[in-house]
Amino acid sequence: METGTIISLALYFIVMLAIGLYGYKTSTSDVSGYMLGGRKMGPAVTALSAGASDMSGWMLMGVPGAMYLSGVSSGWIAVGLLAGALINYLIVAPRLRVYTEVANDSITIPDYFENRFADNTRILRIVSSVVIVLFFTLYTSSGVVAGGKLFESSFGLSYELGLYVTAGVVVAYTLFGGFMAVSITDFVQGCIMFVSLILVPVVALDHLGGFSAVMAQVQDINPTFLDPFVDASTGKALSVLGIISLLSWGFGYFGQPHIIVRFMAIRSVKDIKAARRIGMSWMLVTLLGAVMTGLVGIAYVANTKMTLDDPETIFIIFSQFLFHPLISGFLLAAILAAIMSTISSQLLVTSSSLTEDFYKTFVKRDASQQQLVLVGRVSVLIVALVAIYLAYDRDSSILTLVSNAWAGFGAAFGPLVVFSLYWKRMTFSGALAGIISGAATVLFWIYAPILENNATLSSLVYEILPGVLVSSFCIVAVSKLTKAPSENVTNLFEQMKTELQRT
Fold this sequence. Notes:
It is globular, with a radius of gyration of 22 Å. Helix 8 packs across helix 15. Strand 1 and strand 2 form a beta hairpin. The longest helix is centred in the middle third of the chain and has 49 residues, at 159-207. The protein has one domain (3-394): Sodium/glucose cotransporter. The chain has a two-stranded antiparallel ribbon with strand order 1-2. The chain is built from 19 helices and 2 strands. The chain is mainly alpha-helical. The protein has helices at 3-26, 31-36, 43-54, 57-70, 76-102, 109-116, 123-155, 159-207, 211-221, 240-247, 257-265, 272-304, 314-321, 325-363, 369-390, 398-422, 428-447, 464-481, 487-502, and strands at 230-231, 236-237. Keywords: Amino-acid transport, Cell inner membrane, Cell membrane, Ion transport, Membrane, Sodium, Sodium transport, Symport, Transmembrane, Transmembrane helix, Transport. It catalyses: L-proline(in) + Na(+)(in) = L-proline(out) + Na(+)(out).
């Protein structure tokens, strides 16, 4: 590896660890500070933290890889994501920020569900916590896989060593710095991703003769690459159901704990508007950059006659062959930034669930703040080790792992979050039915080999769509069939609306 590349990466790691130290010294004395940063995040940090934790390694590896294989048709995912993120800012963020504070200052999603529905049985907390731990461990492993692939393809190191280095640095600043460190590192990482996803496609386009020349060459290679209604990897036209399936990725935003927890931590409701503008602008530019990277990659590989074994590494190829070693190191740091920002957020949410929703609730209710922070740190380490173990399957597709976990959260929590914020008549039983039916539908869709040749239903339509529909139906049906919520629950709902109007 070039000396300049090593210097760039070393500086990146030093900055991340320094931010972790800052977070350790400023906001980890109590569990609220460790898990939510004391609810004092500004709009810029909130927006880029939410964006960076959302757009993980799949942004710089998964999306370009999908475009390289399937062409413009895979861009429907980006359209769905943009729409979902915007709606999330508009309908979820303001009410969730107010409601979680009104509902006994809830600091985790399961905590909010329990307080929102006055669940004295703790069943809702347990079930939602199990879903978080299950799907986030899978989600975290996707980021570790991306790190392993990066170190193997770029640095000539072993895949397994890449897993440990990636996870090790993230664990260090997350374990000690908590939410404050995770959010600030996400902000820095979001800035790095933004610059990189402008720089790479622009330089690559210039290298190949400009936008028109590249698009003409891609057209010559395979005309279906530029057809939004044809999957270039198969040559088959997308059905209406296929397009809806790709667009349905947007449904996932309403139920992603590592994203919506940012809304809980923002300084005030008034800051959400600014956060929305910053976040959506960032997202639009980075998604366009990722899409263009994949398309330009088609022409570049054809021109150089190279063999590309893994399409998800096309961004890495550009960084190695088109840039000075110092810039190359910066671009590789962008991939690490994308990977680490998501892993850290997921580790922290899983840790908070294990700490607040299991340890404090069932093991030691009178635990001190220092004990809870310690348990949170141990939880970060345990979840990271499990994720590394799962990531040893080097054939795992980053986009597949992400899509499965994304669908799981979107179906299990998405309808529940929206209904809980807008429907006063929703009951505890309806909430429980929504979580279980949504998660079960997704798992059945992914793993049940009931079609011809043992194919699963996910080959027909993305599992989040049936998951969201089934969950929504169960929430409404069961809520209507069960006893109306108590007066305390409905009063809390009205208090949320009053506080929202006041702010």
